[in-house]
Amino acid sequence: MSRNVSVSSRRRFLVGAAGAVGGGALGVLGLPGTAVAAAAATGTVYIASDSTAQTYNSRYYPQAGWGQKLSSFLTSNITVANHAIGGRSSRSFIEQGRLAAIHQVIRAGDYLFVQFGHNDATVSNPERYTSPADYKEYLRNDYIRATRARGATPVVVTPVSRRSYNASTGKFNVSFPAYVDAAKAVAREEGAPLVDLSAASRVYLDGVGIEGSKAIFLWLAAGQYPNFPNGVQDNTHFQERGAVEMARLVSRAVAGLGLPISGEVVPGVR
């Protein structure tokens, strides 16, 4: 069976499965959007993503995701409904009915920010792995076109950088380059707004440097925080400062997109 036929057949199955679970608990996770006003953009930003954007409760402090901090950079006209959850890829987020839950409540004037790639690239985990080609088609059909069909605006976000660097140059590497390229390509082909968080985060990390980046990622010493008594050296997830800075980068990019929501980025960020 060809890849295109396989993805198409799987999508037909997933749409039916998502509809079946949508009436349950998943169907009430989102917040309803509001109508677009003439004087200001109002509505809800829904986030479909993984652990790098997830909202964490106090038991995980100081771990945080950029989606958790995004509302700080938007006016009160915009509500953020963060559906990001750890361990999900573009495919598994659909398979588990999580995108269907968003699509049941998203309204005209709302936005869907979608960032995947970290878990899609996990070849060793068949529940998560999604090839770059399939990832691109999920973005195209399920996240972009299906969101537009509901009158909302999809915004493609390239995967945020990991703490991966070239020790010789001191410069940070492009994380998940095949997925970054696929996200850019499908956004261009579909005319969808793009936040290149991959590039923006890499520039930022180059600025703070290799040692400085430890304060951005979840690098904690033993005894520093009660929730991580043994310390941790995590090159993927963020501590609070890092989540704030990544959210700032996302909002700064949104300010330049020329969308109604662009005017709702707080002035100090633009």
From TrEMBL:
Keyword annotations: Hydrolase
CDD domains attached to this UniProt entry: Rhamnogalacturan_acetylesterase_like
Pfam families xrefs: Lipase_GDSL (PF00657)
SUPFAM superfamilies in alphabetical order: SGNH hydrolase
Source organism, top-level taxon: Bacteria
Biological source species: Streptomyces umbrinus
Family listed: Belongs to the 'GDSL' lipolytic enzyme family.
Protein's name in the database: Lysophospholipase L1-like esterase
